[in-house]
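To whoever is on call:

I kicked off a structure prediction for a single chain this morning and the downstream step that reads the tokens threw a length-mismatch warning. I double-checked the sequence; it's 112 residues and nothing unusual in it as far as I can see. Pasting both halves so you can look.
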Amino acid sequence: MDNNEINQCMMLVGDKIPPACVPTLRKMLERSDSHVQDFSLATMNLKNPTVSLLLSALAGAWGVDRFYIGDIGMGVLKFLTCGGLGIWCIIDWFTAMDRTKKYNYAKFSMLF
């Protein structure tokens, strides 16, 4: 995979993964096959951290933000406790974007 393709990929996913993981992701892309990478990016459904934050702010007490990133167990628990009586909900306002970026990175790293 050439440097231009890697840069294009990094532009697409750079804001959806933690900044500390960018160098590791770049190394993974350098070692990958171009055809595998094109197919993987086309079929991957990365979650938007901003949408996760909005869901947490608007419907976080019902666990919608957790369901959005695929954390079903915690979403059900958050729903049943009404956002941990509001405390868990407030904490998630500050951690929703980072949690979504970590989810995206884990999903990306499973492909390589």
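Update from on-call: the warning came from a stale cache, not from the record. Cleared it. Sanity check on the structure: Residues 3-111 form one domain.
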